[in-house]
Write a structure and sequence with these properties.
The complex is a heterodimer of chains A (about 400) and B (about 290). With about 400 residues, chain A is α+β, with helices and mostly antiparallel strands. Chain A has 17 helices and eight strands. Chain A has two domains: about 5-60, no CATH class; about 70-395, Cytochrome-c3 Hydrogenase, chain B (Orthogonal Bundle), CATH 1.10.645. Among the domains of chain B are: about 40-150, Alpha-Beta Plaits; about 170-260, no CATH class. Residues about 165-293 of chain B have low confidence and may be disordered. Chains A and B meet through helix 4, helix 7, strand 5 and helix 8 of A and helix 1, helix 3, helix 5 and helix 11 of B.
C-alpha cells in the first residue's frame, strides 16, 4: 500500500519482557508523567533508557478513568449528550454528534437538513479549534527553539478563543455545549452569527502564515520533527489508528468522504494526506485540514438551508425516550479520527451497554512501536504529535 | 545560516504582535461581555402577578444528569396572591458545585420557572456557599442578568414548523383558548378542556390522558399557573404545555401524544425567535411531540 514500508526499520515486538532486553539490569527506568505537561491529561509511561536512547516504552493509561460508559448505562438517553461532552474535551461537539447519531440511527429518525448542515458546520469549526490547540501545544512540547516556545501556543489559543466565542453565541457554553439532541439540534443559529463566523475565519486565515513561519516553514521545527516517530501505514492500519495520524502515513482514509454523514454528501471534502509518517507529516496534514476546514466552514455557511432544526419527537417528554431493542454502531470523523459509538439497547430508557471507540486510544497504542530507538526529547515530540486526549482514552 | 534566518523570522513575527491591541482584559476590573445565551448560574422566577412560578413538578429534578436539584414537594396550598389552590415547591436547592450546566432543567420546565443567568456566582471558600438555596435562587431573579433561554423559547426553537392547515372542528375553540388562556392552557389537565378532543373523535385517548394528568398533578393548580405563562408565551407553547407537565411517570407515551391532537390549531408568531431560521409559524398539535419512538 505504501512505499514507506521498505524504508521503515524492521518492526520489533515492543511487548517483549524487559528481562530479555536487559538481562544485566543496566537500563535506567524513567517514569514519564503522569503529570507531565505534554501529556494533555494524565498519562504515564515507563521508559527504559540506555543513556538518552529509549529501549522500551510501556504506556500506562487509566489515570483519568471516570467510568463514563458505566455511567451511561444508568442514565436516560437524553441525559447522555452532556455526559459524553467531557470525553474529548478539546472537541466536545463531535462527541455529542457521534452519540446522538447512533441513537437516531436506531430510532430511524430523520434529522432535518438544516440540522445536518449545522452539525457539519459545528464539526468543522470544532476541527479548526482542535487543530489550533494541537498546533499550539505541540509547539510548546517542542520547546524553546520556536520563538520562545510558548509564542505559537499563545497565538493559537488566541485564535481558538474566536471559535469558542462563536459556539458561546449559539449554545451558551464555551465548552460542553449540549447542543445536540436526539433528532436534531437544541439551539438554532442566532441572527447575525454568520457574519461573526466569517470575520473569525478571515482572522484565522490571515494569521495562519504567522504560525507557519514558526512551525512548518521553520528550519528549526523541521529539524525537530523530520524523520522522528515514523509510523508506517501498515502498522497504523493494524493498530486501528485513524484520522490525521493515519493520513500522515500515506493512507487516504477519511470518513467524511468515504462514509459521508451530516452534510458531507453535499459538500466536497478534500482529504489531505502526507507520505512521511513522521511528526512533520502529521503537522502538515493537520495544517492542511485546518485550511480545508476554513474553506468548508464558508461553504457550509453559504449553503445553510432554512427549515426546522429538530425533528421534534423526543424533545417534549425527554426522560421517557426509549430505543428499540437492538444494537447500532456509528462512527464519525472527529479531529482526532474515527470516534465510534456502539449502543446496545434493550428497549428501556437506558442503554444496556454503550461502548465508545476513542481515536486517541488507538493513536496511543502506536507509542510502544514508535518510541524505541528515539531520544527522550523526541519522545515528547512523538507523544504530542499523536494528539491524544486522555479524557477520551480513559473515559 | 537558515537557522538564523528562521529564528529572526520568528522573532519578527512575534515583534509584530507588540503593535496589536491586547486580546485579554483585566478580569476583575473589566468583565468581558457575555453572549446572550451564556449559561453561568441559575434563578427562579416569579409570575407576573408576583406568585412563584415553580409548581414543584419535579421535571427538572428528574432530567438532571448529575442529580444536583433537590425539590421538596409538590405541596398544594392557597396562593397568597390569587387565593386559589395550586401546587408549590416547598424547598428547592441546586448544588452548583456539581452542576454541568447542560440546560436540560431549563428546557423541561413547564412554567419557565427556572432559567439560567449570564452572571456567574462569585468564587467561594467553601462548598456550602455554592449550594443555591431557594432564597438565593429567587434573589438571583433580580440580582443577575437572565440568559436568553427558558423552557418555552427553547421548545419553540426546536419545534419543527408545520404548514398551517385550516383548523377543522376545533376552530371556534381555538378562539376561546386564546382569549381565556386559563381554559385553553391545560387541555389535558382540566376536565373541561377534554371536550375539544371528544369533539374531534379522539375522546377515549384524550380522556385517558386527562385522567392520568389529574391523578398526578391535580386539576387545581394548573390553570392559574398556566395563565400568566400564557400571557408572555405564545399559544403555541400553551398547546404543547400539557405534554410536559402532565404525568410524572406516564405509563405509556401514546395517550400523551394523542392528547394535543384535540387541541385547536393556532398559528402564533414566535416571540423569542432571533434565529435566522424560518420562523416556525404555528404549533403542531396534530403531530405527537412526545410520542414514543
Amino acid at each position: 500500500m505504501t512505499p514507506l514500508a521498505a524504508t521503515v526499520r524492521p518492526r520489533v515486538n515492543p511487548y517483549l519482557s524487559i528481562d530479555a532486553l536487559d538481562p544485566e539490569a543496566e537500563l535506567m527506568l524513567l517514569h514519564f508523567g503522569p503529570q507531565h505537561p505534554s501529556t494533555h491529561g494524565v498519562f504515564r509511561m515507563d521508559l527504559f533508557l540506555d543513556g538518552e536512547r529509549i529501549v522500551k516504552a510501556v504506556p500506562h493509561c487509566g489515570y483519568l478513568h471516570r467510568a463514563v460508559e458505566k455511567l451511561c448505562e444508568k442514565l436516560a438517553y437524553v441525559q447522555l449528550p452532556p455526559i459524553v461532552d467531557k470525553n474529548d474535551y478539546v472537541a466536545p461537539m463531535t462527541n455529542e454528534q457521534a452519540l446522538v447519531m447512533a441513537f437516531e440511527a436506531m430510532l430511524k429518525l430523520e434529522v432535518p437538513r438544516r440540522a445536518r448542515w449545522m452539525r457539519a458546520l459545528f464539526a468543522e469549526l470544532q476541527r479548526v479549534a482542535s487543530h489550533l490547540l494541537w498546533l499550539g501545544t505541540f509547539s510548546l512540547d517542542l520547546g524553546g527553539a520556536l520563538g520562545g516556545g510558548s509564542t505559537v501556543f499563545i497565538y493559537c489559543f488566541r485564535e481558538r478563543e474566536l471559535v469558542l466565542d462563536l459556539f458561546e453565541a449559539v449554545t451558551g457554553a464555551r465548552f460542553h455545549y449540549n447542543t445536540h439532541s436526539i433528532g436534531g439540534n437544541r439551539h438554532d443559529l442566532p441572527a447575525g452569527w454568520g457574519a461573526k463566523v466569517k470575520a473569525a475565519l478571515d482572522t484565522i486565515e490571515a494569521r495562519l502564515p504567522e504560525y507557519l513561519a514558526m512551525t512548518l516553514h521553520n528550519h528549526l521545527f523541521e529539524q525537530r520533527t523530520r524523520g522522528v516517530g515514523v509510523l508506517d501505514g501498515e502498522l497504523a492500519l493494524e493498530l486501528g489508528v485513524t484520522g490525521p495520524n493515519l493520513r500522515a502515513s500515506g493512507v487516504d482514509h477519511d470518513l467524511r468522504r468515504d462514509a459521508p454523514f451530516h452534510a458531507y454528501d453535499e459538500v466536497k471534502v478534500n482529504v489531505a494526506t502526507a507520505r512521511g509518517g513522521d511528526c512533520y507529516a502529521r503537522t502538515e496534514v493537520r495544517v492542511a485540514e485546518l485550511v480545508e476546514s476554513l474553506r468548508l466552514c464558508r461553504a457550509l455557511l453559504d449553503g445553510m438551508p432554512e427549515g426546522p432544526i429538530n425533528s421534534g419527537k423526543p424533545t417534549k417528554l425527554p426522560v421517557q425516550t426509549k430505543l428499540p431493542a437492538g444494537q447500532q454502531y456509528v462512527g464519525i470523523e472527529t479531529p482526532r479520527g474515527e470516534l465510534g459509538t456502539w449502543v446496545i439497547a434493550d428497549g428501556s430508557q437506558h442503554p444496556y451497554r454503550l461502548k465508545l471507540r476513542p481515536p486517541s486510544l488507538h493513536a496511543l497504542s502506536a507509542l510502544p512501536y514508535l518510541l524505541p530507538g528515539q531520544t527522550v526529547s523526541d519522545a515528547i515530540a512523538i507523544l504530542g504529535s499523536l494528539d491524544p486526549i486522555m479524557g477520551e482514552v480513559d473515559r | 545560516m537558515r537557522h538564523f534566518l528562521d529564528a529572526f523570522r520568528s522573532i519578527a513575527t512575534a515583534a509584530r504582535s507588540f503593535a496589536r491591541p491586547p486580546t485579554t482584559v483585566q478580569f476583575p476590573h473589566e468583565v468581558r461581555e457575555r453572549a446572550e445565551r451564556y449559561r453561568a448560574s441559575f434563578a427562579l422566577l416569579h409570575e407576573a402577578d408576583g406568585d412563584e412560578a415553580c409548581i414543584g413538578c419535579l421535571q427538572c429534578e428528574r432530567i438532571c444528569p448529575s442529580k444536583v436539584i433537590a425539590i421538596k414537594g409538590p405541596a398544594k396550598r392557597d396562593s397568597p396572591i390569587s387565593g386559589k389552590k395550586r401546587s408549590y415547591a416547598d424547598d428547592f436547592t441546586l448544588d452548583l458545585s456539581a452542576c454541568i450546566f447542560c440546560e436540560l432543567c431549563v428546557q423541561v420546565c413547564p412554567t419557565d420557572a427556572i432559567v439560567m443567568t449570564r452572571e456567574q456566582e462569585p468564587p467561594a471558600y467553601g462548598r456550602e456557599a455554592l449550594v443555591l438555596t431557594m432564597a438565593k435562587l429567587y434573589e438571583n431573579e433580580k440580582a443577575k442578568t437572565r440568559a436568553w433561554g427558558d423552557g418555552t423559547k427553547l421548545m419553540e426553537m426546536q419545534t419543527p414548523p408545520k404548514p398551517p392547515k385550516p383548523a377543522p372542528a376545533g376552530a371556534p375553540v381555538a378562539a376561546t383558548s386564546v382569549a381565556s388562556p386559563s381554559v385553553g392552557a391545560a387541555p389535558a389537565i382540566e376536565p373541561t378542556s377534554a371536550k375539544p378532543s371528544e369533539a374531534l373523535g379522539v375522546a377515549s385517548v384524550g380522556s385517558t390522558s386527562a385522567g392520568a394528568a389529574t391523578s398526578t398533578s391535580g386539576p387545581g393548580p394548573a390553570p392559574e399557573a398556566m395563565a400568566s405563562h400564557a400571557a408572555n408565551s405564545g399559544a403555541a407553547a400553551l398547546l404543547n404545555e400539557p405534554v410536559t407537565r402532565t404525568p410524572v411517570e406516564p405509563p405509556e407515551a401514546a395517550p400523551l401524544a394523542a392528547a394535543p391532537a384535540g387541541s385547536p390549531k393556532v398559528a402564533a408568531p414566535q416571540p423569542g425567535d432571533e434565529a435566522g431560521a424560518a420562523a416556525p409559524a404555528g404549533a403542531s398539535p396534530t403531530k405527537p411531540e412526545g410520542g414514543t419512538p
